[in-house]
Amino acid sequence: MRVTFQMDESINFETDTTFALIKEAQRRRHEVFVYTPNNLSLSVSFQRAMLESREKETWIPVSATRTTEGLIALAQKVSVDDFNFISKKDVAINLNEMDIIFIRQDPPFNMRYITATYILEKTSALVINNPTEIRNCPEKLITSLFPELILPTLITENILMIRDFYHSYQDIILKPLYSYGGNDVIRIQDENNIQVVAELMIAKYECPIIAQAFCKNIDKDKRILLLDGQPIGVMKRVPRVSGEIRTNIRLGASFEPVEMNDRDNEICNKIGPELKKRGLTFVGIDIIDDFLLEINTTSPTGVAYINKLYNISLEKKLWDVFEEKVSSHIRQLNF
Questions:
Q1: What is the mean pLDDT of residues 244-273?
Q2: Which of 23, 140, 222, 278 is catalytic?
Q3: Which residues pair with 88 in a beta bridge?
Q4: For the chain, which terminal residue's Cβ has fewer other Cβ atoms within 10 angstroms, N or C?
Q5: Active-site entry in 104, 223, 236, 278
Q6: Catalytic residue among 23, 104, 135, 175
Q7: What is the CATH number of the domain that holds 106?
Q8: Strand 230-238 to strand 254-256: parallel, antiparallel, or no bridges (unpaired)?
Q9: Residue 209, in any domain of the structure
Q10: 294 is catalytic
Q11: Would residue 140 count as lying in a domain?
Q12: Which of 195, 255, 263 is nearest to 223 (CA)?
């Protein structure tokens, strides 16, 4: 198969899920291409057929017309070893000639990200995850589909509404709606801090922000990976220092083995069918205590850490499903 990854320019070769997927693709003898989002292009041309009239020395239009679309990426054909890219060959690829395309760049979920989803909607290749649903389901908004599973939440730019929300819960989190990785996640325990924190955050990100009731059981943070709506791996995340409220591994949190409990399974069972229906094939969810915090639909991570904890190779299980989906997708195109 011809496999393409839309990804960030720099990755951590030891821990990045994207690199694990690339290595497994190569092990299965697929051709692998990579490109960054700024090298994605859509070319559209409209051609009208013209015929010569023998009665008049002019050209006259006829009904035959053709519109052509080209989805082109300036990419690199790559090969890898266990630790790095060992060869790269620059090449322009037609994405309609690919079998599968992975959207693997990190947020921010901004207009550049959204535009890439518009373009990738037009390809005949299978895209994981479905670009339409990535756009429709930002990770901090899709949780609103499941109000019974989440903490009390307010999404707004209105400072007065944030103050009222604080008065209801007395201990809240403010965070940007479309960022990632624990960026600018701030705990508010004093009403006097609300104005300046909210105004600075709204100005920086130019969008609404999230106010959320604070969950004190930070020690009960889990990342669960789901494949086609079913859990395939789980780990516990522990903040690096006492008092830290962010459990993001990129910020130094450690990871430990953990078992899923009844509430974890309940959450997965409730969200799984909806994720599968939307073509959100591979996602990561964050659970703190008994509450669903986020559903990472963009570029879920955690494969390398879970592999290390349990001595497994999740990328093999992922690719088994990806290959089945490509075969099914091709059959549908040819039907």
A1: 89
A2: 140
A3: 78
A4: C
A5: 223
A6: 175
A7: 3.40.50.20
A8: antiparallel
A9: yes
A10: yes
A11: no
A12: 255
